[in-house]
């Protein structure tokens, strides 16, 4: 086992099949490594002194209680989101709403843009993703994965919009302005980002998002009453 500074050793590795450089994807490689420094990780003792460094705590039991609260809250949020998704999904399945192709195409572009951006952050390309997921080309991916997802999004949006009308749910001008002010505070002094909130289209998008959220909340309420 290598454990001293100055030692050299070889690492036999294999590039991932979806590696962004196609000439290296799936290839075996040997890296010669020289160890310059060895650090040992020492875990701190979980005592009251350590607790004081973690925040406004005086005892370790307070830290453990705080961690438990955070984990419980996280699990509750996850359960709430799954419940919301299930309700919207069930409502969407029962709907016979016609899907405007223009909206579906718009969602397709959004899905491809988001996926491409996320892959780029990982050093991957859309082509490599298609290959690792077993799609022979982009057309097959659109048909089997992207289009069904886009149609589901559009259908859910139409159903919730219709439900909001049925339940007479709306967003007041004050509510919209309050949300805009909140976003502006989040962006601080970023002038370019702040300017977008003067755009009426952005106001409309914010209003629609608020109405959708309020509609989903009402849907949850109607399905949890005893």
TrEMBL record:
Record-level Gene Ontology MF annotations: peptidyl-prolyl cis-trans isomerase activity
GO biological process: protein folding; protein transport
Stretches assigned to the Trigger factor C-terminal domain: 60-221
InterPro entries (alphabetical): PPIase_dom_sf (IPR046357), Trigger_fac_C (IPR008880), Trigger_fac_C_sf (IPR037041), Trigger_fact/SurA_dom_sf (IPR027304)
Keywords: Isomerase, Rotamase
Stated name of the protein: Trigger factor C-terminal domain-containing protein
Organism name: Candidatus Minimicrobia vallesae
Organism phylogeny: Bacteria, Candidatus Saccharimonadota, Candidatus Saccharimonadota incertae sedis, Candidatus Minimicrobia
């Amino acid at each position: 086992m290598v454990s001293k500074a100055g030692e050299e050793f070889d690492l036999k590795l294999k590039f991932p099949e979806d590696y962004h450089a196609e000439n290296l994807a799936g290839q075996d490689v040997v890296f010669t490594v020289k160890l310059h420094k060895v650090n040992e990780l020492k875990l701190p003792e979980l005592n009251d002194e350590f607790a004081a460094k973690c925040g406004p705590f005086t005892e370790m039991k307070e830290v453990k209680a705080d961690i438990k609260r955070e984990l419980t809250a996280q699990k509750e949020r996850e359960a709430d989101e799954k419940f919301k998704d299930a309700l919207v999904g069930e409502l969407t399945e029962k709907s016979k709403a016609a899907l405007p192709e223009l909206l579906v195409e718009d969602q397709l572009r959004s899905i491809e843009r988001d996926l491409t951006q996320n892959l780029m952050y990982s050093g991957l390309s859309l082509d490599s993703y298609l290959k690792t997921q077993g799609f022979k080309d982009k057309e097959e991916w659109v048909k089997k994965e992207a289009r069904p997802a886009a149609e589901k999004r559009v259908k859910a949006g139409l159903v919730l919009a219709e439900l909001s009308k049925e339940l007479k749910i709306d967003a007041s001008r004050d509510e919209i302005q309050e949300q805009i002010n909140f976003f502006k505070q989040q962006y601080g002094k970023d002038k370019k980002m702040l300017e977008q909130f003067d755009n009426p289209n952005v106001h409309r998008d914010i209003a629609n998002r608020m109405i959708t959220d309020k509609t989903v909340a009402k849907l949850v309420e109607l399905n949890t009453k005893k």
